[in-house]
Amino acid sequence: MGDVVRAPWDAYFVTGFDTCSEVLRGRNWLAPDFAWQERQADTERWDAVATQEMTKTLSRLNAPEHTCQRRSLGNLFDRSTIQRLTPQVEEHVTRLLDELADKLRWGETDFVSTVSEQLPISTIGSWLGIPPEDYAHILEITHNQVHAQELLPTKSELAVSAEATVHLRAYFTEMVKQRRANPGNDVLTGWIHTWDAMEPDREAADEILYRLTMFVTIASLETTATLLSTMVGLLLREPGRWAWLAEHPGYIDAAVDEALRYDPPIHINTRIAADDTVLAGVPIAKDSMVHVMYGAANHDPRRNEDPDSFDIERAGTHLTFGGGVHYCLGAALARLEARTLLTQLLKRFPTLRAVTGPSYASRLVFRRVTSMGVAI
């Protein structure tokens, strides 16, 4: 239908790889921040509690606020940080696969609840100092809050998200308060020192610290969990593919990237035209929404030949982690978790097979996998 297609509402779908890349990297395309929301005629959606809360986080900020907060975090997962985290991730994977092995002795089990959802919360939780006994609570409220980030949430979904948002604020505000009272040699303590030096208003600093900690946590969970599930599901779907990769472990990173390309955890991201412009020959008025379609871009045959086939040896390209100033902060961490999990899975479970394929939640934006049965 074209690289830019009119949506049934006052917006446009952007489908082509190069056009999506142009929007993600272009300085004249903005996140839908408060300034834009206040100019909209229909404010009901944007006035929702959960939507308002997410608009304060990094993904919805524009310069200069976005620049300031992003710089305060530094390069969160640079090479040295990933090297330090690798042994911890390996330990988490080993523990979770021990649990998987115990369950598989009795037959079929759910890979998602046993492994996929547990690895991201274990990784980010231990990194930030979240007590393990709180992991289940964080997962539950994250599942519920994400409705507010959907393209067309219903009133009932926004109500569920509003309740989850209250719990998220209470939890992470208290976490910042406790860490301030009991500083340690950890990431959050470092952020507290940074913002105390930047912001003389302690209350304002703590508000920013809450939002950063909450956002980094929830942004690390559902997307990575979905990647882990779809990656394993795709590798098990075709007979012989799992065994081939076990015999060719040098392609593990390529398999991770092909899973990211083939079925990205997020399918849609929204940007706003900063000025009247023309995109792929289509006039776009200032303030218009454009929806970047990651899945469509990754399946553009002009970029990836035969895009609907899952090919580990493809060496293709994708936009799954976004681009420009909003490029995914946790891309390196997600790759580490996926690579580590797949490496150990192939060694420990060479006969792993899918009993039921991935089941997905009914969503347009976030591709949450709810279950996937496996056996040996």
Give an overview in words.
By secondary structure, the protein is an alpha+beta fold. The protein has 17 helices and twelve strands. The protein has helices at residues 17-25, 34-37, 44-47, 49-55, 65-73, 79-104, 111-116, 118-128, 135-145, 155-181, 187-198, 202-219, 222-237, 241-247, 252-262, 294-298, 331-348; strands at residues 4-6, 11-14, 29-30, 109-110, 268-273, 277-279, 282-284, 289-293, 353-354, 359-360, 369-371, 373-375. A five-stranded mixed beta sheet has the order 1-2-8-5-3. β1 and β2 (11-14) form a beta hairpin. The protein starts with a strand and ends with a strand.
Highlighted features:
five-stranded mixed beta sheet, 12 strands, 53% helix
Layout of helices and strands:
Blueprint: E1 4-6, E2 11-14, H1 17-25, E3 29-30, H2 34-37, H3 44-47, H4 49-55, H5 65-73, H6 79-104, E4 109-110, H7 111-116, H8 118-128, H9 135-145, H10 155-181, H11 187-198, H12 202-219, H13 222-237, H14 241-247, H15 252-262, E5 268-273, E6 277-279, E7 282-284, E8 289-293, H16 294-298, H17 331-348, E9 353-354, E10 359-360, E11 369-371, E12 373-375
Parallel strand pairs: 2-8
Antiparallel strand pairs: 1-2, 3-5, 4-12, 5-8, 6-7, 9-12, 10-11
